Amino acid sequence: MENSTEFLEEIAGKEYEHGFITDIEMDILPPGLNEETIHFISKKKNEPEWLLEWRLKAFRAFQKMELPAWQNFKMPEMDFQAISYYAAPRQKAKYESLDQVDPELLETFKKLGIPLSEQKTLAGVAVDAVFDSVSVATTYKEELKKLGIIFCSFGEAVQEHPELVKKYLGTVVPHSDNIFAALNAAVFSDGSFVYIPPGVRSPMELSTYFRINAANTGQFERTLIIADRDAYVSYLEGCTAPMRDENQLHAAVVEIVALDNAEVKYSTVQNWYPGDKEGKGGVYNFVTKRGVCKGANSHISWTQVETGSAITWKYPSVILQGDNSYGEFYSVAVAKGKQIADTGTKMYHLGANTRSRIISKGISAGNGQNSYRGLVQIGAKAENARNFTQCDSMLIGDRCGAHTFPYIESKNNTATLEHEATTSKIGEDQIFYLNARGIDTEKAVELIVNGFAKEVLNKLPMEFAVEAQKLLAISLEGSVG
Amino acid sequence: MIMINQLETPLYESIAAKFEIASLQSSSEALQALRREAFNIFKTLGFPSIRNEEWKYTNILPFLKEDYELDVIPQELTPEEFGKTAALVAHHLEELQQSLKGEQKGAYRLVTVNGKINAELSVLPAPELLRILPFAQAEQEPAFLANFGKIATLKDNALVALNTALYNDGLYIEAPKGSVLDKPLHLVNVLLAGGPVFVQPRHLVVIQPNASVEIIETTISDDAGHALFVNGVTEIAVGENAHFHHYDIQTGRKGMRFVQRVEATQQKHSNYSNYTFTLPGTDLVRNNLVLHLNAPELESHLYGLYLSADRQLVDNHTEVHHKYPHGESNQLYKGVLLDQSKAVFNGKIYVYQDAQKTNAFQQSNNILFSEKASVNAKPQLEIFADDVKCSHGTTIGQINKDALFYLQTRGIGEQRARNMMVNAFAFDVTEKVKIPALRTYLEKLIAAKMDNA
How big is the CA angle at B408 (ends B403 and B409), to the nearest 5 degrees? Predict the structure, then answer.
């Protein structure tokens, strides 16, 4: 593959394309974390007393917790006092249409290749764009409103639907779940809120684009999705972040509740700044995502494509509480350069006839380290539970690593569990075959990787699948030699 | 003495006292230093609790709450004890060796009583074929000096440290260069005790280049019903082009708790194969099997079969370290769980950066027979080289009801049909046993247990 080396090195040297800083005035809280910070955030967001109390409870839990030590990477130094916990664009007017939005902001999105206005007409996607911490534009809201669907920023939901927020907030990821979830619960600035009323199928894919701006601002998003009886929703999340020298912490929390017969699909494409070639800078993506299939026959599906971040550390999980409920997890994680991905899922089978399916594809290149860590737990009452797990790893280059740490715990003898994992190198024969058919090495690798990840990419909604495929190709170019 | 561990057991005090005695035993300064180092490690670590990731599913603390006697220095057997031992061994052999004799040439026999070789009950091979010495006589052997205490990992390993600090004597087995043992060696460990005891057996097996050995290990004890905690360490060095087939048959009785670490190093073109069979009886079995593939172009096979019953806990931990290119390792563990038993399988494959062209496979299958049985599995891969083929698979399920029904429609009773299926399930492992008579014996044991299930 001599000929390809040069080309690949050239691409490997490519700097992060989405790195730029938007110059908008910010309302920034000085770095530091104490109870006053939380009072400030809560007041700024005009929150009711109970929410403030909840935040404080979480903060106290957070203070008692220590950073975990079981992860398969070296924990970076973490100074929670050096982070500023609030940043919001100064202009806070509500917009009826996109035309009224700060043009510079729109320009930012355009640079990222997210034509908000185009998507509105072409793709039929309602976009709730979170620029740093406060929602700026929410489109298609009116249309969704007609169906009774609530899709708004978290702050807005607290103001307008406090009863729903109060009922479900923290029920899936408790305030003291883990140190990062506790931190999030204490200081979360905004996020998205979705409620689908009984019997309603969301007619479009709901989507948010997160973007970290403002130096030194850890982003603490909180997303809460509730699908009532017989409801259906597909939710998309996609991310890019500008280039920074200092590491940025992203500790989001996503909670999903699916009641009887409800179905929620949650798809993520994550492409945050992974740091430069030496691994300097880059985002720490420490996210807690969990859904609960509360009702019978409910269904939650996580799909993720993780190509960015210096460290990705998350385990989107499903608690299969209702009988006959179904949990799915599809993941493609790419670790190149000095990136680390420690990701996987947890499936807790509690109800009878619960099923889960886990497909994880890890791709390691350069000095990247990719770990799959998963838990499949069958409770004593989960009669006839069924799990299928497959985690495959592909290694590109001899300095990368692929690791699997599956935990399988069965307390019920009617359960059937299967786990399989393979690790292999990208096939030289396959590349050679494709070369022989006149396809150059770069294209060949792209084809092979896409084929490897196809099972997961297929699960993404159409527009996302295209984007993810492109992302995968770009991420891996330059890693083969 | 400071013990970090919160465990409340009278054991800690007796361990300290025992160490004082044990430390005087080793002749050389180096061995004494090793004991001291090991004891310090144990002091800082204490017994592992379930908060230790390696012991997450296996809580040994409840098994330590007896008033164990640590100080069972092997001495000459009284005629009464000898009679008892001889009867035990004879009974054991009737079961096992009879079949060995029948179909094959039979086997050599090495009987140890509380770790001490008993020549009268043994039938030993000639020293040109296999040298067998107690540690006390082996301490100046070059291969002993080169390997003892250097294979088993002390770091973060409280039980190995405890064994290293407290072992009384041990077995040194060396296969001389180029020797081929014509019959398998049957190693019978007899444990006799007047009360609850906690013992630290230790073996060092050195297979010199081009040698080939088969060893069958079994452990028996009297039916006194005392609690018996065995914390064993076996170090194995397999030389270039040497072959070692290591069979470990773990039967036992209630009250027996069995924790062991078998750690082996392998050289070029060598083959180490381990066959571990765990059957109902003991309260607890924890096998730590660790292989260091210290050269290129070699193979290792780990086969395990566990049939657990009652409240038994069977835990198999394996670690295979592929350090050089062209290594091949293969792990197959199968389990059948009855009653309220629990099984744990934790397999790890490490492929180091230089170990290109490695093939490493791992498979674990489990059948749960009862509602109260449970399985925890953690098959892990850590791979740092790219040109490798590695895979692992785990399944947990139950007996196929359709197949059972099919057999019943053919006039085969449920019990028999189930036994046939368990037999077939176990076949993947039992067929690997190279000694036909041993295989028959194992199949019989399984069938007998399944009949009573």
Answer: 100
DSSP B119-142: EEEEEPPPTTT-EEEEHHHHTT-H
**Would residue B436 count as lying in a domain?**
yes
Residue B246 lies in a domain: no
Residues B371-387: what's their mean pLDDT?
A: 89
* CA distance to partner chain A, nearest, from residue B57 (Å): 10
Task: Find, in chain A, the residue whose alpha carbon is nearest to that of B392.
Answer: A421
Residue holding tokens 């970076």? A76
B259 pLDDT above the threshold of 80: yes
Q: Which of A404, A409, A425 is closest, CB to CB, to B381? A: A404
Alpha carbon of B41: minimum distance to chain A alpha carbons (Å): 21
pLDDT of residue A101: 54
Average pLDDT of span A135-157: 75
Any bridge partners for residue A239, and if so which? Answer: A210, A270
Using a CB–CB cut-off of 8 Å, the residues of A that contact B are 70, 378, 380, 393, 395-425
DSSP character at residue A122? I
| ipTM confidence | 0.77
Q: What is the mean pLDDT of chain A?
A: 80
b/e per residue A376-415 (b: at least 16 CB within 10 A): bbbbeebbebbbbbbbbbbbbbeebbbbbbbbbbbbbbbb
Average pLDDT of span B76-87? 83
Measured from the Cβ of residue A94, the count of other Cβ atoms closer than 10 Å reads: 10
Let me know how long chain B is.
453
**Mean local confidence (pLDDT), A360-385:** 92
Residues 380-419 of chain B whose Cβ lies under 8 A from any Cβ of chain A:
380-398
* The pLDDT of residue A296 is above 90: yes
Q: DSSP readout, B136-202?
A: HHHTT-HHHHHHTTTSS--TT-HHHHHHHHH----EEEEE-TT-B-SS-EEEEEEE--SS-EEE--E
Q: What is the tens place of the pLDDT at every residue in B382-438?
A: 998 888 888 888 999 888 889 999 999 999 999 899 999 999 999 999 999 988 888
Q: Answer whether residue B421 is part of any domain.
A: yes
Yes or no, beta carbons of A421 and B393 under 8 Å apart: yes
Tell me how far apart the alpha carbons of residues A8 and B37 are, in angstroms, rounded to a whole number. Answer: 51
Nearest-CB residue to B381 (from A415, A416, A421): A421
The stretch A417-438 carries a mean pLDDT of 89
Rounded Cα–Cα distance for residues B20 and B27 (Å):
14
Instruction: Provide the residue range defining the domain that includes B452.
Output: 408-453
Which chain A residue is nearest to residue B336, measuring alpha carbons? A413
**Cα(B238)–Cα(B244) distance, integer angstroms:** 7
Q: Provide the mean pLDDT of chain B.
A: 89
Cα–Cα dist B333/B315, whole Å: 11
Which region holds residue A402: left if phi is over 0, alpha if psi is between -120 and 50, else beta? beta
CB contact under 8 A, B383 and A395: yes
Residue B418 lies in a domain: yes
The pLDDT value recorded for residue A93 is 39
Interface contact flag, A420 B391, Cβ < 8 Å: yes
Report CA-CA distances (Å) from B51 to A95, A269, B44: 53, 35, 15
Residue B270 structure tokens: 């060598």
Q: How do A326-335 and B284-293 pair as beta strands? A: unpaired
8 A C-beta contact, residue A283 and residue A273: yes
* Domain locations in chain A as residue ranges: 11-476
Range with lowest mean pLDDT among A357-361, B23-27, B354-358, B395-399? B23-27
Token pair 């300290």: residue? B16
The answer, yes or no, to whether residue B51 has pLDDT greater than 70, is yes
User: What is the average pLDDT across B103-115?
Assistant: 79
Minimal Cα–Cα distance from A70 to chain B, Å?
9
Contacts with B340 from chain A: Cβ below 8 Å: none
> Number of folded domains in chain B?
1
